[in-house]
Amino acid sequence: MNKKIISLLTAAGIFGAFGGSTVISTSFAESESISAETETESLTEEKLREMLPETMTEFNEFTEKNGMVSIHGKYIVYCDEINYSTGAEVVMEQLGTAEVKKAFEYNIKPDEPLPPGAKSHTIIVYEAVSSGTVEITISQGMPWEWEQSHVLKDHGYYMVNEEMNVSEISEEEFTPPVRGDANGDGDFTVADLVMLEKWLLGEDKLTCWKNADLCEDQVIDVYDLCVMRKEFSESKPDHTVMSVEAMRGNNGMEKIKNGVYTAASMSELHTLLKTAELCEYDGCKCDFHDVQSLVPNGIDESFFENNVLIAVYNSVGAGNKVLTIDKIEKTNDLLTVYTTTENPKIATPDMAYYRGFIAVSKTYFEGVSKVERNDTEKIN
Question: Is the domain of 357 the same as that of 255?
Answer without folding.
Answer: yes
